[in-house]
Predict the structure.
Amino acid sequence: MRPFLHQTLNRTPPVFSRFNVLSGKINPKRSQYCSKELVVKIMPETTYYDMLSLRPNADVESIKRAYREKIRTFHPDSLAGELARRKGAGNYGGAYEIERRIEEYKKKTQEINQAYSVLSDPVAREAYDRPRKERAQAAYRAPDPSRAGPYAQRRANPAPPPQTPVEEKMPVRWIAGLVVVLIVIFSSFVSLFASVFLTDGLRPAGSSGGLSSRDLQETQNAIQATYIVRTQNAQLPTATPRPPLENRNIGKAFYDSENYGLAEELYTLALSQSPQNAQWHVERGFVYVQMMVQDATYFDRAMADFDRALLLDDAVHETYLGRAEAQYRYSTLPQNRPPSPEAIQRIQDDLLQYIERTGDIEHPKVKELQALLDG
């Protein structure tokens, strides 16, 4: 081999040699031969379809099937038995490795749930696919000046055709605008006249111009009809399952309207789709606390939800407040009166835990429970 050729080959390695495609890492020793922008271009983009191992044209059944397989593979509870076995055998190094894998599985499960919530909803999926399709079409249609010859730049940016100047007829536009303004002003005067004179003429004698009892009754009837329609719409079956976040939002709306039975159903459906959401367990626990008035057996369900939330994420501080409220309501039921000293101590411990973690001593529920305990 000629000396000059040998020296040139050794001095100029391949431009992609600093990027390892399998490991996704960059070789720092060869950073002078490859720019950061070039490495970013060759690194693949992870999409929701990649998370579920699907093609972009996958149908609904394929998405559901892939979602179940991924959840079954990466569910953190699948490693619970191995973690217990290694801790029982005294293999704490192996147990630490399993705990690290459990954290990775939790993050992977959240990503899979997010991907499924978007791809299972036709509207959200279309909105997600639209930018990707537009980028692909733009990349397909855009010319490449470096590969098309010396005249590619001229073909890529052709000169605009000459435009013939058009004389604008300003008087016609001004007249049209003036007509529109006059029509709007006339309509406003007609509406004001009807609202002031005709409405006052239809009111019964003795009215002072405010809302009558008939108006208030019609408003209440309209609100009740709207609530009934929304309740029926929430219970209707859909062609595709609603995303878990939508089920949670509907359940929260029912909870705010004091319809706890439907709220419990929607929260249960949302948690069946996303069982690792600690905040939703806490919110369903508060629903059970309200349902304890009719049935004391909901106390066990509420405490189970609060304990599950603490196991998933102990940073959800409302859990301690919910435990305290649930225990107080249970201890004040007719069959449990008067509250035992042990129950009062547990309630005070949970309130203390909430205050120590948040410092929020002005919370309305904290003040209410503390006043009831002091009384």
